[in-house]
Structures are given as C-alpha cells and as structure tokens.
Specification:
With 164 residues, this protein is α+β, with helices and mostly antiparallel strands. It is built from three helices and nine strands, in the order βββββββββααα.
C-alpha cells in the first residue's frame, strides 16, 4: 500500500494586509493563503551498484524470482544474508547449474549461473528502461531485443520521476 502525505493546514501561512476603513466595505478577503515552499521530493536512483569485481557473484532463479547473489565460502548470500531453503531452512548448495537444499528436505530450489548477463535473460528486470539501467550500472551486455529502438511513444510512467 502506498501512502501519500496529506497537506496540512500548518503548511500554509496567512498573510494579512492592512486595509483602510474605506476598503473594509469591499467584500474582498482580508487574508490570502499561500503555500510555503515545500522541500522538493527526493529524486532517487532506480538501481544501485550491487556487484563488485573483487567478489564472487552469480545469478539465481528461484521460482521466477531472479537475484544477483554473492557466493561466500561456497554459500549463497542475497541482500547481505545467507539464502536458505524456503521449506526447511536448510543450507543451499550449488550443483553445476542447479540449486538444492542440503538440509532435511533436499528439494530443488532453482537455477544458478556464474554469468551475470543471465540476470537480463532470466527477466531479472522486465521493463526496457530498468533493463538498460541495470546493464549500465552493473556492466552487463544487453540482449539484442533491448538494443532495438522503441517504435512507439510510451505513456507517462512513474519512472520519469527518477530522471537525473
């Protein structure tokens, strides 16, 4: 659920103008409300650099959720924490290009690749704009379909708020 901040009455200031007794007969308002200068909304960056050259990185596809993962001591780490089995919380192990649980259940978890370009191939980023940004920031190679120009003018998008 997205919450929006409601404008408060305290955001407005009241400007009173002194009027002469003759002007009081006019039914004009004696004060004018003006909106104070609100701080501009912060313009964020859509994708922050995740990978680094001096660390071991890969890509996992867990049931349609594609993540850039860091390999630490042969264990998968995502978002700074070790990834575990969603059924038994066991340790995950990589077997060639597959990920399995090494705990009680021994279930198949998903696919793995050392090639970071697979992040785009496995639809880690779906929108054209985000795919280009991820590729630029992470140094990935765009697929041929991403290099073709868009033949239509896209509708307005919330993504335009993130322009630098």
């Amino acid at each position: 659920m997205r919450r929006t901040e409601q404008t408060k009455l305290s955001d407005f200031t009241e400007v009173k103008e002194e009027t002469s007794p003759t002007e009081k007969s006019n039914p004009e308002p004696s004060s004018v409300l003006t909106l104070e200068a609100l701080p501009p909304k912060p313009k964020g960056q859509m994708w922050y650099k995740t990978t680094s050259a001096d660390e071991d990185w890969g890509v996992c596809n867990f049931d349609g959720t594609v993540l850039l993962v860091r390999i630490v001591d042969d264990r998968i780490h995502a978002h700074g924490e070790e990834a575990v089995c969603k059924w038994c919380s066991g340790i995950l192990v990589i077997d060639d290009d597959k990920v399995f649980c090494n705990g009680v259940c021994k279930r198949y978890q998903g696919e793995f690749s050392k090639n970071l370009n697979v992040f785009l191939h496995w639809e880690g980023a779906k929108s054209y704009t985000l795919r280009k940004m991820v590729a630029d920031v992470e140094g990935l190679d765009l697929e041929s379909r991403d290099l073709k120009p868009i033949s239509y003018a896209p509708n307005w998008s919330i993504l335009y708020e993130y322009d630098p």
